[in-house]
Amino acid sequence: MRALVFHRPKHVSVDTVPDPIIEQPTDAILRVSSTAICGSDLHILNGLFPQPKPQILGHEFMGTVVEVGSSVTKLKKGDRVVVPFPISCGLCWFCEHHLPTACSSSNPDHYGPEGGVLDNKGGGLFGYTDLYGGYSGGQAEYVRVPYADVGPRKVPDNLTDDQALFLTDIFPTGWTAIDWAQLKGGETVAVFGAGPVGLMAMKSAWLQGAGRVIGIDSLSYRLERARTAAKAETIDITQQDPVEALRAMTHGRGPDVCVDAVGLEADRTWIEKASAVIHMERGTKKVIGLCCSAVRRGGTVTIVGVYGTSYDNFPVGQIFDKGLTLRHGQAPVHNYIDHLLELVSSGRVRLDDVISHRLPLADAAKGYQIFNDREDDCVKVVLKP
Fold first, then answer.
1. What is the CATH number of the domain that holds 357?
2. What is the pTM of this model?
3. pLDDT tens digit sequence for 79-125
4. The domain that contains 225 carries what CATH number?
5. By CB count within 10 A, which of 13, 218, 267, 347 is most buried?
């Protein structure tokens, strides 16, 4: 089959690789019909998450079942399904306590309680380095899905691939960022980052009762997408200080909720880059700092942008003085996907309006390049095998 393979930082290519096979009786094999490039994939491309050997990337995918293992009971050949990006066994203590990203069975080589930089990680993830299980991803013609009775959800016939695909990751991740804030209704929610996850967080804020939604970014085309697709007010951080702007918009208090939908690859000065090298940090915690400064006293900061290391000068004193609540981590997609599938199927939310590029799988390396380099007003790339 053909698949997008990471070889080394800054180098991916579409190669011919062996077809996946059933390895465990709980596996299924899908013929991939749609897959997408995620901002998290760029962290691997740019070497921020180490991967010493070639790997098929991609954790946002859906497709049709072509084969199932002998123990699979909920799926059959021909079923069209969408697959959550975390790999959950459904049976361990963490899965039974609704913590699928902490699954203690799906990442046997690198799992542990510590949450270290290079070991003791959480549960397995599709296409996301050996540290998270070494599973081949879905930017391919076919993919093996472990624990097939736990993750995949059947897609109604009334939904196209474009409508359903983002139930894999970015919509549940955006939903998680708002759900963690436990809105009561009428709150002001500020989302730092108007990329795909940020846009989904903005949409989710409206769905969960926000009274006002504000998107913050440095790219004009992404801010335009926030206004049109997410109906958000916007702040261009190249034109004004976002913290001061947010305070001015909220009677000096700051928003009730700030969401970090950027993560470690925020724009940095050369001084910040040098500091990161000195302190052995990957990327920057800049957006966490902006969120903690902007949010009102007693407010909530949720972090769904990805981070991989510890950071010097973390603002714990500010967090304590302001009495902030912080929630952060990988989205527990399994907990939300059924409800979100119903929202999409009933027409209460549209997801495909964040797509800017549709490319054949053969052009996947080009898709990575334009997404990473922010060319051609690229917001979200969908690949068709």
1. 3.90.180.10
2. 0.95
3. 999 999 999 999 999 999 999 999 999 999 999 999 998 899 999 99
4. 3.40.50.720
5. 218
